[in-house]
Structures are given as C-alpha cells and as structure tokens.
Prior knowledge:
Elements: H1 2-18, E1 23-25, H2 27-37, H3 39-59, E2 65-69, E3 85-97, H4 98-165, H5 171-206, E4 213-215, H6 239-259, E5 266-276, E6 292-301, H7 307-375, H8 387-421, H9 425-430
Parallel strand pairs: 1-4
Antiparallel strand pairs: 2-3, 3-5, 5-6
Helix pairs in contact: 2-4, 3-4, 4-5, 4-6, 4-8, 6-7, 7-8
Amino acid sequence: MIRLLRLCIAFSAFASAIAPAYAQISFSTAIALALKSNPKVLTAQADVDKALAAVQQIRDAFIPNIVGGSGVGPPSYGYPLGLPSIFNITSQSLVFSYSQHDYLRAAQAALEATRLNLKDIRAGVAEDTAVTYLALDRDMQRQAALQEQQGFSDHLVSIVQERLDAGQDTPIDLTTSRLTAAQIRLARLRAEDETAADQAHLARLIGLPAQALGTTSSSVPPFPATSSDLTDTGPLTSPAVESAYAVARSKRETAFGEARYLWRPQIYFQGQYSRFAKYTNIQNYYLQFQQNNAAVGVQITIPLYDVAHRAREREAAADAARAQHEADSIRDQFFDSRIRARHTAAELSARTEIATLDQQLARQQLDIMLVQLKAGSGNLSGPQMTPKDEQTARIAEREKFVAMLNANFEAQQAAIGLLRTTGELEGWISAATQTQAAPSVQTLPAAPAKP
C-alpha cells in the first residue's frame, strides 16, 4: 500500500508538471466555434427558418387542403336538425387573387432580408471573436511583461534602500522607487482583471470553459497592408444595408397587395363529400334519399366596400415609407462609419509604428547600458553606470513594451473593423486555415537577460 501511494503521488506530480498552463485554441477554431454556437447567430438562423416557412405558407395557399370530420349522435326526434353525417371530407384552396402574388413577393423579400441579416450578424460575431482573441493574446504578453517589470521595480527598491543606508541616496529616492513599484503592482492587478474579463468573454463566445483558456499567435492570419490613400473606394453596400432595403421592399409589396384588395375578384376552389346517417330519420322526409353526397365548385367573391381594410391599406403604405427611410439612414451611417474606420486604421497604424520604434530605442539604450555595466564606461571622469540605472532602464523598456502592445492591439482592432466595413472580413478569416504555421502577429521581444 505504501508503494502504491508513493506511485500515485509521483504520477500526480509528473502529470501536473507536464500539464500546460493554458489550453491553447487556434484563431480559426475560435471563430468556427463562435459562429456555430453563438446565441445571436442561432437567433438569426431561426428568423431565416421562420421567413422560409412564411414563404411556403403563402405559396401553399394554391394547394387544396383536405379536412375530415364526423358528426355522430343518437337518433333524432322529428325533423333532423342540421345535416348529420357519419363523416365528411372537405377541401379548399385559393385559385386566383390579385393580392396573393404581391404577398408572396413580400414574403420572399422578407426571407432575403433575414438571410442578409444572418450574414451581417455572423460578421459581427466573427469580428467580436477576432478582437477578443487578439485582446487575450495581448493580455497574456502584457501580464508577462508586467511581471518582469514588477521584479525589476522590487529589485530597484532594495538597491535604493541599500544606497540610502550607505548615504548615497535620499529618502525621496526611496519613496520614488516605492511609488514606482506600487504603480506597477496596480497596473498588474488591472491587467489581470482585464485578462480574466477577456478570457470569460471569449469563453462565452465559443462555448468553452474560461479556465486556463489561451491563444496561439501564429494562427492569426496576416493583416493587409494599410493603404496611404484614404479615398473611399469600397463597395457601396453591406449586408446590413441590403437587409434594410430588402425589408423596405417587403413592406412595399405588402402595401401594394393591400391596395389591390377592393374591387378585384378572389376565386376559391371548394369540394365536399358527406355520408349521411340513417338513424337520424332524415330519409323519411325525402322521396329520394342519397346517403353519399358530394359537391365540387368554385367560389368567386368581390370585396366592394371595407372601411377597415382601407385603414389597413394606409397603415401598410406608411409602414413601407418608414422602412424606406430607415434603410436610407442605415446606408448613410454605413458610409460615415467606413470613412471613420479607414482614417482611424491609418492613424493607429502610424501610432503603432511610433510605439514600436520607441520601444526599440529603449531596448537599444538598455543594451548599451548593459555593455557599459559589464565592461565599464572607459571614462573615469564621467558618470559611471550603476545597478540602479540598470533597473530603471529595464523598467522603462518594459513600460515602452507594454505601450507597444496596447498600440499594436488598437491598430489590429481598427483593421478588423475596417475589414468588416469593406466586406473583406470573411476572406481574411478564411485565410487563417491556410496560415496556421506562418507567424502573423508581430513577434514581440522579451526583456533582455541580466548580464
């Protein structure tokens, strides 16, 4: 038993040692899971199914229905009331109506609107998932950088404390270093909270547990180069705009159908078969009683005067006009948002370049300082580099690194928004399956090792 217990303990220690810190999920897998299980996508798909059923319902009005019934009861006394039958079968269908074809075109336009709305919602969910995925990737790198920065700040506090004890620094220097360490700890706590929030949001999008959910930077497809030409040359529409105009077209067809209701004939097919019961004494009142009875014909109706329908016609016309104005408003908002997205992407791309160069400059300065600390400055009359300067430079380099991470993420977020407005988001996401091995997100440097 003791040997078995030792074996179990050793196996548990080995399993925990080789277990990964994060359950890595690729970019394309995250997008696919989100589009498959997101409630918004499923709701839009249900709307498509409902609209398709509405089209079939209007089209099937021309197909005769069949209804069976029975009126079984005890023998009647005196003259039979009604037409008692053992069973009866009736059939009815629409043969011709001026408005029915308009209603069918309205239902087909509504179906097209729901399909376009589904496409737009899928694009929105894909955009949200992609941005959250990149945000979590940024969070994980930022946490590692802040952890390193906190270690440098704690080391700086101990160095300043020793220099203060030796009379080389002042209490203000110690307070300043401690303030820096406290600010870094606060930034690290905020970064951990943001990481947990992004992790939970991504988990809700893809339908997986949030515990230890990680990302794979190499699975993100490369972003297209940002053009310096800010002229809006993209498509003149989007799925959301097309869906709004399809809704307006559906409302317009409905209003047209309501306007063609009065003073126009409507033709219906009708058929009926009934087998009358003899126990109702109905045969005693007819010279030639027939137990089996059938009738087939058409019914023609012409609505002549209907005040309520006139009001419904005006309501449908106003609803169509409102839908048209809403579609125009959505189109104008789409154009404005695309122009803003193009300018924002260009600005953030330039800001990312500045942050990257700033971080590279800080790293180069730190490398020079590390060389001077190792070999000496060579100038005994000039200021000598100290471990305090080293830790200060390391803290500054990690600060510039975190700023570069944030700027890079904001540029990527703006680029994804621009891809959606230009209709290129789906093609960019589909490229993720072809670039699993190629690094697409900028490879960000780690902190220089201590000499």
